[in-house]
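User: Structure please.
Assistant: Input sequence and predicted structure:
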Amino acid sequence: MSDEAKRWNDYPKTAQLGSKLRENGGHLALFQQFPIRRTWVNGEWWYSCVDVMGALSASPRPRNYWSDLKRDLLKKEGLDVHALGVHTIKLPDSSGRIQATDCANTEMLLRLIQSVKSPNAEPFKQWLARVGAMVMDSGDERPLRQRYRAQLDQSDRDLHELVEFHGVVTEREHIQLSDANYAGLYDVTCEMDMLRRRPGHFPGDLEVTMGPLELAANLFQRELTSSQIRREDIQGIGPITDSARGSGADIRRLMAERGETMPEDMPQYPPLPPGEWMPADHPRRMNWNEPTEEIEEKPIPIIQIGATS
């Protein structure tokens, strides 16, 4: 079986493991095709050492690799990883059972990576810096994020539908409007600038890791822009993008006056899967349970060409 086929076969188990982790205050992060279990303890992320070693070594037996590494560090360098800061934390395994698991924070992981010869070492460090900046949902934050994400999506679609009646018709003009929405609220000139600041996202995907306040600020910006366009009957892409940037700048100014963190510097959260916020009637939501349309099979006519006499 190919690695790709195995990943697809293992995906249902991975999804279930992610749900089990969330129930126990954790999160399943993905480095390339490797799932990494982590949990939020005392204000920082702690990562499963076995999972990290699996990602770095690509070993089919990452548990054995981690055991060997601990023994080698103790024997050759006199380093006891538990004395250095590796803690045993209870995490669910792939079968859903809660097991004692060796875990390390970011600082300890960077120390361990130095002892692993792997082409994945540098990419993993970059990945760790990005996902390590995420904070864990606390209290009612996740339901709030889900609600705000759905509302922002609806407001964004409503805004783009509204401007079609005010002279914005081409795909390029709609992209200009999306850029203007970010340009006022954030210290950027366009959406691409935000994608450079937050690597790992795709266009239109930045909202999945936003926190409640950042989502709310974006929602307010879309609604404020829509209100001004209707009220003043603004026409044309130039005046409309000016309105979008102005609405965002006003919100940004208010946040600065109140001492809030600027939107581009706000903490990022574990991604919200579409299934957690998309309503059932969302145009991009795929209903896998809906029966497919059956196509009547008709016989293909066979034309026999005989030899001419």
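The chain has a mean pLDDT of 85.
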